[in-house]
Amino acid sequence: MRIAGKTALVTGGTDGIGLEIARQLNAKGANVVVVGRDPGRLAAAKSEGFATIEADMSTKPGCDRVVDEIGGAPLDLLVNNAGMGGPRDLVNDFDLDLTDRAIFLNLNAPMHLIAAFLPILRERPEAAIVNVTSGLAIAPSVAGVYCATKAGLRSFTQALRHQLRDSRITVIEALPPVVETRMTAENPHKKMSASACAAEIVKAIETGKKEAYIGATKLLRIVSEVSPATARRIMIRY
User: Residue 112: which CATH number?
Assistant: First the structure.
């Protein structure tokens, strides 16, 4: 895809990987709309020249707000990046309210936006949908709810890609490793920078690469193909 002149919508676009994707798309000439829920970060994004939409996408009304704000305007690129962790302790402190929010934000929200914007995307000369999953979609860690949502989004992405195979829409799955963001602040493992991760995702958009394995997930992919059991034993410790 030629990014210059395209209109892009980036969810979770005021922080972390999403903000870096927005910046890099903007640098390549795209018109970028970012979605977030923190007023301060939205104001900062607006000061960088981005159009902004304030919405809590862990709820259906939040998704509806995004759809209403875009309306029928042309849209060439949808980046479903917004995500959150769920409960890690599934035995002693299984927070079901947090679980429901994580499932909606990580899995339901991308489906809602795709369903709403697919007619617009199909009208464009070229378009792309990017679903940001995780290396944990291949082999889970102890963060069971988060992993389940990302594995679900991976399966959905593969099915969507097949059904859109004869269209002008490229369906891309981006699988980041552990990235330096607020969500991973307490993670002790080595982390990739958000800007480096975003650069790989933007490159996949430009080249039409359908699966973007980023950083350490490239090795995880190889291990999982050779021995899925070994990949599971390694990742369940994370």
Answer: 3.40.50.720
Q: Is 146 a catalytic residue?
A: yes
Which residues 6+ apart lie within 8 Å of 156 measured at CB? 107, 110, 111, 131
Q: What is the predicted pLDDT for the residue at 234?
A: 78
Whole-number Å distance between alpha carbons of 173 and 230:
23
Helix (H) or strand (E) holding 121: helix 109-123
Residues of the chain with pLDDT under 50: none
Using DSSP, how many helices (H) and how many strands (E) does the chain show? 9, 7
Chain position carrying tokens 């992919």: 221
Residue 224 falls within a domain, yes or no?
A: yes
Structural domain includes residue 206: yes
Report the pLDDT value the prediction gives residue 188, as an integer from 0 to 100.
61
Supply the pLDDT for residue 231. 85
The answer to the question of residue 69 being in a domain is yes
pTM value is 0.93
Query: Does 2 fall in a domain?
Result: no
Structure tokens at 89: 């302790």
Give me 98's structure tokens: 């947090």
> Catalytic one among 146, 157, 161, 220?
146
Interval 106-153: pLDDT, tens: 999 999 999 999 999 999 999 999 999 999 899 888 889 999 999 999
Split into its structural domains, the chain has a count of: 1
Residue-range definition of the domain harbouring residue 159: 7-235
